[in-house]
Automatic annotation (TrEMBL):
Keywords: Hydrolase, Metal-binding. The keyword Metal-binding applies. It comes from the Bacteria. PANTHER family: ACETYLORNITHINE DEACETYLASE (PTHR43808), ARGE_DAPE-RELATED DEACYLASE (PTHR43808:SF32). Pfam families: M20_dimer, Peptidase_M20. The keyword Hydrolase applies. Residues 200-317 form the Peptidase M20 dimerisation domain. This is M20 family metallopeptidase. InterPro entries: Bact_exopeptidase_dim_dom, Peptidase_M20, Peptidase_M20_dimer, Peptidase_M20A.
């Protein structure tokens, strides 16, 4: 596990000052690379675009002495695969640095190119989540290489190709988990909430599907014995009971994102699309609800699922309900090792003159790849760039904080691997 770092270490050594100087020298080139990456559409399902982003980064990593592998996925998964850049040394902690190549912006969405809005802000697809973070990883390592500080370091930079829309099957994260288990520390470069916040914990996510059924007939007979309440009232009862029973628990959220119900109702999970036919004077015999469930720990997830199952079994007269769950990203709880990494980020930031850093609220973040390995090693996330509007048209990067975050990352990597 991570060793303790002295709270008194608030100044930079001559070597660390050289690292900072190397970062600052490289920032114009770093922004040009960011522009190049942003101007490649790499929505998860755009396999060609995701691979192109990976090819650009692969060349950059090989130029500073990293070996690289491309981890291919089965053709049936329709995913580009993952880029892994790595080098082996004999000193310090073994690190895995985590980014991803894909964005949420698929080819059918508008594609604004990288644009500087002013001296401190730029916009473009994926500039915040996560291409800015990918460039933070590379630029920090370039600064260390320029000072001859990588030759004894063991570092793996892992860029998944389907973080935003993970491919089905155990293959999707098998190699990632296997490599991470050989490391001591995982640093994630998902976007930072701001310069002063990091993530020692992240919520996991999973999905659920509720199906209700009941007797159909003329609407004038609803509620009567032998007819009952119909499938839509049963779905409404269950959803409202979820809200009443579970909505106040810290870090737990559940969202019914789609509901279809009527005389005839179908739901296509692969397309996230429903079709329904019904009339106001027909009691609906079927309804389907699809939703997500977010949680901090596996214990919280399982407890919530148990309560949701119990609620679903308490059916209204004349109705039946079934709820099923599918796992997605696990949760990442805050551990003593994670908190020590946050302390390192704080000490490094203070030494740079950028002020304190603290762990942010896990409830403010979504799920991420680092959660898959959180049970095996010390983890810290939110080390990427800062900005606004992730996953939305017009997302931005804070260019004033961009070099500061690269400097902090470079010094953290140096201090962990020295």
């Amino acid at each position: 596990m991570l060793c303790c770092f002295s709270a008194q270490a608030q100044t930079l050594t001559p070597t660390e000052r050289n690292i900072v100087a190397a970062v600052r020298q490289r920032m114009p080139t770093a922004e040009k690379l960011l522009e190049q990456l942003v101007n490649i559409n790499s929505g998860t399902l755009n396999v060609k675009g995701v691979r192109e982003v990976g090819n650009v980064l692969q060349k950059e990593f090989e130029a500073i002495g990293f070996k690289s592998d491309w981890v291919a996925m089965p053709a049936s998964m329709q995913r580009a695969g993952h880029l892994v850049a790595h080098r082996q040394g004999k000193k310090g902690k073994k690190l895995i640095l985590i980014g991803h190549l894909d964005t949420v912006f698929e080819l059918d969405l508008p594609f604004p190119k990288y644009t500087r809005l002013n001296d401190s802000t730029a916009t473009g697809q994926g500039v915040l989540d996560i291409k800015g973070g990918d460039v933070v990883i590379l630029t920090a390592l370039q600064a260390l290489q320029a000072n001859g500080l990588l030759k004894d370091a063991s570092i793996t930079a892992y860029f998944t190709g389907d973080e935003e829309r993970q491919g089905a099957g155990a293959e999707s994260r098998a190699d990632f988990i296997a490599r991470a288990r050989k490391a001591d520390v995982a640093l994630g470069f998902e976007n930072a909430s701001n310069l002063h916040t990091v993530a020692t914990a992240r919520r996991g996510s999973s999905t659920w599907r509720l199906t209700t059924s009941g007797s159909t007939g003329h609407s004038s007979g609803i509620f009567k014995p032998g007819v009952g309440y119909g499938a839509i009232f049963e779905a409404a009862r269950i959803l409202n009971s979820f809200r009443e029973t579970l909505s106040q628990e810290q870090y737990l959220t559940f969202n019914p994102g789609l509901l279809v119900g009527g005389a005839e109702a179908t739901y296509d999970e692969t397309k996230a699309r429903g079709e329904v036919v019904g009339k106001t004077n027909i009691i609906a015999p079927t309804a389907t609800v699809a939703g997500d469930l977010r949680f901090l720990t596996e214990e919280q997830k399982e407890a919530a699922r148990a309560r949701m199952r119990t609620i679903a079994t308490q059916s209204l007269p004349g109705t039946r309900a079934e709820i099923t769950f599918s796992d997605g990203y696990p949760g990442m709880g805050s551990t003593p090792g994670n908190q020590k990494l946050a302390a390192l980020a704080d000490q490094t930031s203070r030494a740079l003159g950028y002020g304190p850093v603290a762990a942010g609220d896990p409830g403010s973040r979504g799920a991420g790849d680092i959660s898959y390995v959180a049970q095996y090693l010390d983890c810290l996330d939110g080390l990427g760039v800062s900005g606004k509007g992730a996953h939305a048209a017009g997302e931005t990067i804070n260019l004033k904080e961009f070099p500061m975050l690269v400097e902090r990352a470079a010094l953290m990597i140096y201090r962990l691997t020295r």
